Amino acid sequence: QVQLVESGGGLVQAGGSLRLSCAASGRTFSRYAMAWFRQAPGKEREFVASISWSGGLKRYATSVKGRFTISRDNANITQYLQMNSLKLEDTAIYYCAANSRTGLPGPSLDEYAYWGQGTQVTVSS
Known about the structure:
This protein has 125 residues and is mainly β. It has strands spanning 3-7, 10-13, 18-25, 34-39, 46-51, 58-60, 68-73, 78-83, 92-98, 114-115, 119-124.
């Protein structure tokens, strides 16, 4: 079983940057693909970015491409989401997710068996 804990959320002005971290634990975790999702108040949870277990393959939602970067450090069993040029519409609770496949996962919630508790990101004007 994989356990995920997010950190790094907070309040930031539009145009600023934040880096989210997701620390993971569990046997064979290095072979788990991972992703970030987000959910704004009153809206459904949506896909943000995903990464293969090796870190060689990445996928981004159109709304964040060019601004966000997903990465992972398998030595420390941690994944990151670097968020630059933040916009008001990026305000949401961000969730770390993982599955047991080695390839690049897609945007469907059903593909992910493990979830963190989330970290709040608030972008102000």
